[in-house]
């Protein structure tokens, strides 16, 4: 039946009061509202049982159990519950309060207390069971871990590549592994019953005992040290020892654990690496780093009168041996050269080193009995000229040698090495089996040239390079018929560097194929911008440019970009590259013809092969080599051999249909002589200095060279 409002209000007040009191006796994982609602439910159960027609107090047992299950289990929780409910239940009764109603309340509360106590007991038993199971589980886990640790120890002990020994406090072996037997090269069973002291040389045994004592007494937690051990056959093995202590359950020292790492192979490897760090592994002489360090040491210890000689020896054409007979033969010859050099200076205070793939160096401290460098060079050439037979093939080498000498201390190792290397390079440039002594002045000039060459890419990038033009003169009437495109370098410290040096440096630095198309584009654009679309541009290509397969592509790009007619361009190929057929040199003749430009040859010296090219390829323009002009045939007698040959050469070229140009013409008198000889065009000092287009071109551009 629904409760009347007054009774519902009273029950709610009872639940609230109950919650306030019991909440102070125990921690209950409920909010205040949840706690009041739970206790109100219990009040309803108890009050309904009290007011039932058939009174049965047993459900109160569940109320007591519910209090325990919801953690109302503080020391005073049951007491507070009984005190609150005893008075509240009587007030909720529908019957007058008499002894019978009181007995019913007592019955309800006693059953509640019984359920509460029973639940507490069962809960305690459950907790005890959980604790017991947890203890059993922990015990089994500890036993499992102990067995696993023992198994791991046994596995590590016996499978380790490091020797291990367990000894008692007297040093007798308790257990050893097979790695220790392997290090000592003895059967494993022969270690049983022995004392560890017996494994060390007698002179080291006392020191080893002291190390074990320091670990036992706690002076050192463990010892790490290199030691010698005696193998089974009496030989010595270098080992690394680690000594530590094991204690028993009472903390008393019980055993020593000794780990032994074999260092014999490592020691041998260190010795080998030490040799590799100072010796060339193929030839056995000093490697480059060690040779340089020896040179440093000699220079630092040199006195003011100490005289040193450094020979830089480079094998000539070593690639012939490598490519012709194979690298195995090449390596063998390197060993032969190294052995011969070492043997030649064996009786002197000298160092021989391999400083490059096929290059060696000899450092000698001059003194009494030390032969002159020329004597050494003669001996080297004599020894190396004797063939070495590899199989049925007798192989010999020749060398180029650079010599650098120095007296005193004030000299850099790098400068001395560079001086000898530079001299050797100059010797190689002369030919094979040559030698050269370092010349300070020549070396300074070469160093300056190399520095400029190395800086050229940056100079081009920074805009220091520019084009200039030299007029090409018709020798018949001194008209400007064309301009040759030339380079100049406005160097910030060296001043203006002319075309010939720029060309040679660009060729040496590999910049010709970059700077050449740039200069051609610059010249064509200058011509177009000036409005001289009819001016003839002459380009003398270098050997590298002549051999390049992209010449036709460069011309097509020039025409497309600037609109300049290809008929107004003369491309003169280097005759040396064409004769040698380097790269695409000969194919470029047809490519130029297809592009419609004027085809020329420069550096023409008059050989039969060059004449054949002019005739077979119908060359339109021939520029004689500058050396033919600088020899000044115009100053010789008219009937001299040089004059006759030159006259015949010009005449034959004209008969073949080629216009003949001469360059580097010094004077107007020389230009007149060449004109009388039959030359058509000339350029050189007699026309004035090269300059920009406005300074070298007349107001009206001259007609094409083709008109000659």
UniProtKB/TrEMBL annotation:
Residues 306-440 form the GGDEF domain. InterPro entries: Biofilm_reg_signaling, EAL_dom, EAL_sf, GGDEF_dom, Nucleotide_cyclase, PAS, PAS-assoc_C, PAS-like_dom_sf. Residues 449-704 form the EAL domain. SUPFAM superfamilies: EAL domain-like (SSF141868), Nucleotide cyclase (SSF55073), PYP-like sensor domain (PAS domain) (SSF55785). Keywords: Coiled coil. Residues 125-152 form a coiled coil. It comes from the Bacteria. Pfam families: EAL, GGDEF, PAS. The keyword Coiled coil applies. Residues 223-275 form the PAC domain. Gene3D superfamilies: 3.30.70.270, EAL domain, PAS domain. Residues 149-219 form the PAS domain. This is Bifunctional diguanylate cyclase/phosphodiesterase. It comes from Kibdelosporangium persicum.
């Amino acid at each position: 039946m629904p409760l009347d409002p007054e009774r519902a209000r009273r029950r709610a007040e009872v639940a609230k009061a109950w919650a306030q009191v019991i909440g102070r006796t125990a921690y209950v994982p409920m909010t205040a509202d949840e706690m009041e609602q739970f206790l109100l439910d219990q009040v309803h159960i108890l009050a309904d049982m009290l007011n039932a027609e058939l009174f049965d107090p047993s459900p109160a047992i569940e109320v007591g159990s519910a209090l325990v299950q919801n953690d109302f289990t503080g020391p005073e929780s049951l007491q507070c519950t009984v005190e609150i409910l005893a008075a509240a239940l009587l007030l909720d009764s529908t019957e007058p309060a008499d002894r019978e109603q009181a007995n019913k309340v007592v019955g309800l509360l006693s059953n509640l207390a019984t359920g509460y106590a029973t639940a507490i007991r069962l809960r305690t038993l459950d907790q005890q069971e959980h604790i017991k199971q947890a203890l059993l589980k922990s015990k089994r886990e500890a036993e499992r871990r102990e067995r696993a640790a023992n198994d791991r120890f046994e596995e590590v002990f016996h499978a380790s590549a490091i020797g291990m020994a367990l000894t008692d406090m007297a040093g007798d072996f308790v257990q050893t592994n097979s790695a220790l037997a392997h290090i000592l090269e003895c059967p494993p069973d022969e270690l049983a019953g022995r004392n560890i002291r017996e494994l060390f040389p007698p002179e080291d045994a006392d020191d080893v005992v002291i190390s074990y004592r320091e670990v036992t007494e706690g002076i050192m937690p463990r010892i790490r040290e290199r030691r010698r051990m005696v193998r089974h056959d009496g030989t010595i093995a270098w080992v690394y020892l680690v000594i530590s202590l094991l204690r028993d359950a009472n903390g008393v020292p019980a055993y020593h654990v000794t780990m032994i790492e074999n260092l014999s192979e490592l020691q041998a490897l260190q010795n080998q690496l030490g040799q590799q760090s100072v010796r060339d592994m193929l030839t056995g002489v000093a490697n480059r780093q060690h040779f340089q360090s020896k040179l440093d040491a000699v220079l630092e210890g040199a006195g003011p009168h100490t005289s040193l000689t450094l020979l830089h020896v480079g094998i000539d054409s070593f690639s012939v041996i490598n490519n012709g007979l194979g690298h195995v033969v090449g390596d063998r010859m390197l060993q032969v050269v190294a052995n011969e050099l070492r043997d030649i200076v064996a009786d002197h205070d000298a160092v021989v080193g391999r400083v490059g793939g096929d290059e060696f160096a000899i450092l000698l401290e001059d003194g009494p009995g030390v032969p002159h460098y020329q004597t050494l060079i003669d001996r080297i050439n004599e020894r190396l000229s004797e063939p070495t037979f590899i199989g049925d093939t007798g192989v010999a080498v020749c060398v180029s040698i650079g010599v650098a000498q120095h007296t005193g201390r004030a000299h850099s190792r790098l400068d001395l090495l560079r001086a000898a290397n530079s001299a050797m390079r100059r010797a190689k440039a002369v030919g094979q089996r040559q030698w050269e002594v370092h010349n300070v002045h020549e070396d300074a000039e070469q160093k300056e040239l190399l520095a400029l060459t190395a800086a050229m890419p940056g100079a081009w990038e920074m805009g220091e390079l520019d084009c200039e033009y030299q007029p090409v003169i018709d020798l018949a009437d001194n008209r400007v018929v064309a301009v040759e495109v030339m380079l100049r370098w406005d160097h910030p410290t060296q001043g203006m560097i002319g075309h010939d040096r720029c060309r040679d440096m660009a060729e040496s630095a590999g910049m010709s194929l970059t700077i050449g198309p740039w200069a051609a584009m610059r010249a064509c654009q200058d011509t177009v911008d000036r409005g001289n679309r009819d001016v003839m541009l002459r380009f003398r290509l270098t050997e590298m440019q002549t051999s390049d397969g992209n010449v036709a592509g460069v011309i097509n790009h020039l025409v497309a970009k600037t609109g300049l007619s290809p008929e107004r361009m003369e491309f003169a190929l280097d005759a040396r590259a064409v004769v040698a057929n380097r790269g695409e040199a000969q194919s470029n003749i047809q490519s130029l013809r297809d592009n419609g430009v004027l085809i020329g040859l420069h550096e023409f010296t008059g050989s039969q092969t060059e004449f054949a090219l002019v005739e077979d390829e119908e060359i339109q323009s021939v520029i004689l080599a500058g050396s033919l002009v600088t020899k000044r045939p115009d100053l010789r007698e008219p009937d001299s051999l040089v004059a006759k040959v030159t006259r015949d050469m010009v005449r034959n070229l004209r008969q073949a249909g080629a216009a003949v140009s001469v360059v580097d013409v010094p004077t107007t008198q020389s230009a007149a002589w060449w004109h009388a000889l039959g030359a058509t065009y000339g350029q050189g000092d007699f026309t004035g200095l090269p300059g920009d287009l406005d300074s070298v071109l007349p107001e009206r551009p001259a007609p094409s060279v083709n008109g000659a």
